Amino acid sequence: MNAVDSPSLRVGNIPREAGDRGGAGAQEMGGDAILKVNDLKMHFPLRQGMLQRRVGTIRAVDGVSFELREQEVMGLVGESGCGKTTVGRALLRLYDPTGGEVLFHRADGSWVDVAKLSKREMKDLRKEMRMIFQDPFSSLNPRLTVRDIIAEPLIIHNQDRDKITTRVAELMEAVGLKPAYMGRYPHEFSGGQRQRIGVARTLALNPRLIVADEPVSALDVSVQAQVLNMLQSLKDELRLTFIFISHDLSVVEHICNRIAVMYVGKLVELAPTDELLRNPRHPYTEALVSAVPPADPLIKMERIILDGDVPSPANPPSGCVFHPRCRYAQDICRDQVPPVVEVGPEHIARCHFADELDLQGVADVPAEAV
User: Fold this and answer.
1) What secondary structure letter does DSSP report for 2?
2) Contacts of 210 (CB under 8 A, 6+ apart)
């Protein structure tokens, strides 16, 4: 018999340690910054031949900067290969950044540069910074039971072993799974249930910041909605901060406060969700917005089809990296790297003509009878 998802989310059963933000005076979204990323770079050597000589550099992330506030959900979107997953892994030091700063505001009030911490210091910090992986099957060890999978971070961080089973049961209830199934193995669960197991493991150490790497892309649409609702409930109840990585704007618009758009390793636009969808100021964002299916069947979007493929980060174009596919490109775009321009409150874009172009957003589409 397959396990059945529980419809309730009993998040309140999760105990909190001293220093967690669950009491009075907790900051609402829009308060103090929890993460400051300055000129983050992640370059990989490109090697060829039997001797594996270095022949070039893959600039997977090339100068990304942003701030993340307490209890905010920020979406990181773009096509496959744009560097968004690499950003998430570099923030958590799953990759050692090539350059830049990743400043994290710890629960004790101190700031640390994640990029410069030792392995021992990172082990302690990983209690506060966790990740949800994309594939809900390959991220779970098929040889371990659900109990052992969820308990693994508790054991690694020397939690009280006598209370681990109780803690695992509380975490399973929090993500909508029955504790009675903790003796089962991952293959006995559906894709949505396996992702819930991964979320429970992520929550085990009471993290403050979670990087969710396309957590619903491998799931059916109906299951995606269930998992998104669960993450939203957990975020509100536990006062979590999320970086939500996705290639699908129609997913991030429902859960994110702000959206950052990436292209070939660079952040090309960042704005509050509604502002970015209604008033895109970068041509690449305009193309992404045009691909979002409207909820109203009477609305017809003018679909913008981009020519060509995403350039290789090993050999990015000169000037603006988007100019080979941009229908508004001019000579300056081929020759000069565009600056980051502030085009409105909390709205920035990396485009020479960000203040001049009249781009299509969702509010510009007229309703027509089909």
Assistant:
1) -
2) 129, 130, 131, 132, 202, 240, 241, 242, 243
- Sheet containing 53-69: which strands, arranged edge to edge? 53-69, 33-48, 99-105, 111-113
Six-digit token string for 239: 């006062």
Question: H-helix or E-strand containing 224?
Answer: helix 221-238
Contact 75, 274 (CB under 8 A): no
Q: Look-up: residue for tokens 């089909």?
A: 370
Question: Amino acid letter at 117?
Answer: L
Residue ranges making up the domain that contains 276 = 30-47+56-128+207-370
The answer to whether 336 touches 352, Cβ cutoff 8 Å, is yes
Tokens of 311: 């350039």
CATH number where 322 lies: 3.40.50.300
The gap from C-alpha 194 to its chain's centroid, in whole angstroms, comes to 19
Task: Output 5 or 109, whichever has higher pLDDT.
Answer: 109
Is the residue at 369 inside a domain?
yes
Token couple for 207: 């993290």
Is the pLDDT at 9 greater than 70, yes or no? no
- Structure token pair of residue 104: 């994290």
Which residues, 6+ apart, have CB-to-CB distance to 99 below 8 Å? 39, 40, 41
3-class DSSP assignment, residue 157: coil
Separation of alpha carbons 298 and 34, rounded Å: 42
pLDDT at residue 150 is higher than 90 = yes
Residue 140 forms part of a structural domain = no
Percent of the chain with pLDDT over 70: 88
How many helices (DSSP H) and strands (DSSP E) are in the chain? 10, 12
Sheet holding 258-263, edge to edge: 129-132, 209-213, 241-246, 73-77, 258-263, 266-272, 347-350, 340-344
Distance separating alpha carbons of residues 349 and 267, to the nearest angstrom = 8
Q: Is residue 2 part of a domain?
A: no
- Put simply, whether the predicted model's pTM sits higher than 0.70 gets the answer yes
| Tally of domains in the chain | 1
In a domain, 274, yes or no: yes
What is the C-alpha separation between 74 and 61, in angstroms, rounded? Answer: 18
